[in-house]
Amino acid sequence: xxxxxxxxxxxxxxxxxxxxxxxxxxxxxxxxxxxxxxxxxxxxxxxxxxxxxxxxxxxxxxxxxxxxxxxxxxxxxxxxxxxxxxxxxxxxxxxxxxxxxxxxxxxxxxxxxxxxxxxxxxxxxxxxxxxxxxxxxxxxxxxxxxxxxxxxxxxxxxxxxxxxxxxxxxxxxxxxxxxxxxxxxxxxxxxxxxxxxxxxxxxxxxxxxxxxxxxxxxxxxxxxxxxxxxxxxxxxxxxxxxxxxxxxxxxxxxxxxxxxxxxxxxxxxxxxxxxxxxxxxxxxxxxxxxxxxxxxxxxxxxxxxxxxxxxxxxxxxxxxxxxxxxxxxxxxxxxxxxxxxxxxxxxxxxxxxx
Amino acid sequence: xxxxxxxxxxxxxxxxxxxxxxxxxxxxxxxxxxxxxxxxxxxxxxxxxxxxxxxxxxxxxxxxxxxxxxxxxxxxxxxxxxxxxxxxxxxxxxxxxxxxxxxxxxxxxxxxxxxxxxxxxxxxxxxxxxxxxxxxxxxxxxxxxxxxxxxxxxxxxxxxxxxxxxxxxxxxxxxxxxxxxxxxxxxxxxxxxxxxxxxxxxxxxxxxxxxxxxxxxxxxxxxxxxxxxxxxxxxxxxxxxxxxxxxxxxxxxxxxxxxxxxxxxxxxxxxxxxxxxxxxxxxxxxxxxxxxxxxxxxxxxxxxxxxxxxxxxxxxxxxxxxxxxxxxxxxxxxxxxxxxxxxxxxx
Lengths: 354, 347
Prior knowledge:
The complex is a heterodimer of chains A (354) and B (347). By secondary structure, chain A is mostly helical. Chain A folds into two domains: 2-106, no CATH class; 132-346, MetI-like fold. Helix content of chain A is 72%, strand content 0%. Chain A is built from 14 helices and no strands. Chain B has 347 residues and is mainly α. Chain B has two domains: 2-78; 90-342, MetI-like (MetI-like fold), CATH 1.10.3720.10. The two termini of chain B are 34 Å apart. The relative contact order of chain B is 0.12. At the A-B interface, helix 3, helix 5, helix 6, helix 7 and helix 8 of A face helix 1, helix 2, helix 3, helix 4 and helix 5 of B.
């Protein structure tokens, strides 16, 4: 091949000619320059348009120069690489923007007063007020939901892994756990509405909301616990059973403790998921501006519901409060996630490599 | 080995009787051997009953969701003076009660389709970036960040969509209308209206489901056997050819199911839609116009002012949503399950 004659012997000159390493950067500069020229020449006002033109020009120039020197296959490779990069940067923008907006708009609202006062007696166009009532509501509803969902979920996972190895029931349960993961939160809310509030004629309370949250939490707990139990080495079970320990003690004293870290992680991730649920709370807990410590009587509030009501009140002051609530909500979710993952790393079953 | 485990891990409160535990602990010594046999068998029975009971309870909940929604939906539809499937109006307080899911079902589908068209290619790009392009250290951190973003509550995305994205979409809408108005979809009946449209909703939904689709498909791309990738590279494939010939075929069913999981979430999303969209119950395929609504949004918006039949009507709409998401998710799971059987992923 003629490529032996080309300059750089260090690159894979054995096979094909390659673009010099500085070429992509040079092309990028060229594309930027051209884009600025076009933008200024045609008097395009929006800067994103300039960037867009630059990006397209870059891909085209890169493709052409690579196709000329290296052949089409490498040119395509360059296009794919730049598309992957574009996808990544494109996605980063809105996600960073969400976080940035929440932090920058929310941080100004949050202070000791915001965290320790309710919205009782605060007019919609008045500053002040806080999320204390919502924090209480969220805490109680999520705790109640976890108390219901965690035991049932863990026991179901135990059944799936330890007892029902691929019999009909466990296959059905396993399938419906997956399907249940996809039940929209508003449908779970409607179910509790029709069953608990319309048919049983119960009032709107925090507990009604936590019933719906428990339904949303259950499949997540089952799935993660199941994964963890599967990671427990079979030798541990066999050793315990061989010593004559009954199966249920083997499970409760050998299998579950071994997987405890993972199970706790799973439960916490599930909690993190339901903390942010708004729709079922909106329908079942109904919202309140005052502090209600009792989840079994009268409506309560909750953090996501607080964000929603303050947003829909529509004044500048209330929307500022909505951002504050959103920031607290994100902080709670992130902390739950980080702690859960910390526990997972700290308590990971030995010998499991994932 | 046994003793530290006994002390370190308190049993998690689900034992039928805690006194049995003492019988099994090593301190009791020899005499316990015989009665562990007895209590063990009873404990076994109780524990098995409890755990299989939980599994059955889960099935019962799913059945109950379907049953209760259906019961209320039937009573609502029998009071409906319009055709539930083809009416687009939602009048549950007017005298002849007429409501139907035509407009809101189409709105749901449009917004989800917009979300999928944007989110699937982009999130596959991110997943590939994390699994095959980024340097390893950065990749790990990015995977972490994506997982965290998947946990951001939808109400936050809704707030961002309504207060940040909507004002910033005016220019984009005008541009799309000007240059792509001929495509019918991007035609605006009244240019310059607030972009609280299904298109904007689709974008918010896309951003929301990006992390989920990315997380699942990244997981699958990382499972591609190294041997396949190295074989492709050794044959002289470029990185992109390696991805096309080794990674994508291996992960195809995983990509499909990840997308369908995202679709399921986009279809059922309530709050992000409720904050952004200004609803109206008409069928309008010009997606830049502030018109249309989705099922979930209708439920959330109408719920406060609905009583009796109105609530039942919302439950009927919820049943439709339930069935749609059930089908989508069931299909996704079946695809995953088939992959497990045939792919040889363990190799």
